[in-house]
Amino acid sequence: MDQLNRNNHFLGTKLRNLRKEHRITLEELSSRCAEIDPQKAPSTSYLSMIENGSRNPSPEILSIIADIFQRPINWFLDHNTSALPSAPKPATGGMTRIPFDPAFLFTKDLLQAAIPELLLQTGTTGRQFAHLLIRSHQETSHNEYPDLERMAEKIGNREFPLSVDRLMTLCKQHGLEIRWFERKPVMARDKERSVKSVIRSFYEPPGIIYLNKALEKDPARLKFDLASHLGHKVLHGGDGLKSVHATGGEFDESPDSGLPINTNIDASDVLLAWRDFECSFFAGALLCPKIPFRRFLNRERHRLEAGKKIELTPAAMMRRMTKVSNYPHWHFFDATSAGRFRAVYRGNGIPLPWGNMTEAKDPCPNWAVFRMTEKPLNTSSSQLSVIRENDEWQLYCCHTLHTKDMSGLQHVLSVGVNLGPALISNDANGNDIVQGIGELCVKKSGEAKVGVAAANSIRAIANILSIGWIEDALAQPARIICPRSLNCPRDHQCNHHGKSSNKTVEDIKKEILIQTAK
C-alpha cells in the first residue's frame, strides 16, 4: 500500500484523460465499478477526488478501475512515463500551457504561496503579473469582448471617423469637463535606465479630464486619450480608479513600474490593470467601430499609412485591426528597443523572441521588430518569416515601422499574420508550400526568395485578406527566425557566439554510460 501511495502522483490525471478518451462519465464509471464489486465500488464524488489528486485509491479500487480499462495496475503508476500527461496545447495564442500535475502540488493554497515567491525571485511586480494575465485572457479569447463593443457603439452610434470636436461634444454630453495643463517631459526610471517621460492626461473624479496642451498638436493621441477617459466615465461611473496616461519612461501606471517590487498580487492591482484594459479597448471600439473600420481597412488594403486620413496612431490602427479582421491569426508587438516590449498580442500563437518582463541575452536578430531598431526613423518594412515549431515550419508575414511617442522615445511597431491557415484553406498544397519555403531557407543559409508558384499562392491570400503588405513582403527574401538564437535551425547560427560548447549534466551522464559500457 505504501509503495502504491508513493508512486501514484499522476494517477488521477491518467485516469481522467483515459476516461475522457473513452467518453465515459464519472457516473458511468462508478456504475461499472459497482457491477464488478458493489461493496468496494467508489462513488462518483470519490472518483472525482481521485482524479483531482485529493484522494489515493486503495489497491482494490485501483484494481477494479484497471480491469474496466483493460490496463495493468502499473500503467497508472509514476514509473510508466509513456503514459504521463502531455502539456496542454496552446489555445489561440501564447506559450504552451503548463500541465498542472502532479495535482497535489498545484493546489490553490500552494500556488497562492509560491507565486509571490516566484515574483520576488524574478523581479516581477504584482502589477506586471496582472497585465500578463490580462494579455493571456485577450489571446485565448481572440479579443472578443462584445459587451464593451456594444457600449462603445451605443455611445458613438458607429460614427466613423470621429473628430476631436465630436469627441469633445460626447465628453460634454456625459458631464465631463476638460481642463488643460502644461508640463514638459521629465526624466523617469525605466527599470535600470532613465529616459524622458511625459504625462499626457489623467482623470480626476467626479468628472474632470486633464489634458497636456502638447496634445493640441497631436490629434491622434488626443482622440485616444479622450475616448479612454470617456470610457472610464461610461463603464465605471468616473470613480477615478484609472491610471494616468503617460509615455516614455515608466511611471506607476505602467506594467513596467519603477516602484519598489511588491510581491503581493493585490486585488487592487488586478482591478486597476483590468480597468485600464477595458478603457483602452473601449477607446479602440469607439474610434474604430467594427464594421465601418473593417470596410476602411479593406479599401486601404490594411495600409498603416491610411491612419493619417482618419487621425489614428499606427499603434491604435494595429491593435484594432487584430480585432476587427475576419481573419483571427494576428500578432502585434510594440518595442522601445531590442528586447523591450511595451505591448504584446499573440492571437496566432507566434513564439516571442524575448520576454516583456526581462531582456533576453540571445535574441534572434532576424525578427523584423529586432532589425528595425537598428534602422533610421521613419522607415518601414514587410517581411515573410518561417519558424520551426514541433518539427514543422510556420509561415508568418508582418509589417514593421518606426514611430515616436509624445516624449520623443522611439518605438518599433509590428503587426502580422500567420499565413499557414489561410494558405491551407485556399490551396490543397498549402501545407506543402509552407514546408517548402522553410526547407528552401535552410538550404540558402537562412533566407531565400520565395518561388514563383508559392509567391502566386501568397498573392492570392493577400488579395483574399485585402492586406497589401503581404504582397510587398514577396519583394524580399523570406527569413528564418527563432525564439532564441541558441535554438536556431540554420547551419550557422545567426548569433555571433555560435553554438555553445558548454555541456549539460545529461551530456556528461551519457558520456559516462558510453565509457563504462566499453
UniProtKB/TrEMBL annotation:
Q: What is this protein called?
A: DUF3612 domain-containing protein
Q: Which domain of life is it from?
A: Bacteria
**Residue stretches spanning the membrane:** none
Organism this protein belongs to: Sheuella amnicola
Q: Which GO terms describe its molecular function?
A: DNA binding
Upper taxonomic classification of the species? Bacteria, Pseudomonadati, Pseudomonadota, Betaproteobacteria, Burkholderiales
Q: Which Pfam families match?
A: DUF3612, HTH_3
Under the heading SMART domains, the entry gives: HTH_XRE
Q: Where is the HTH cro/C1-type domain?
A: 15-76
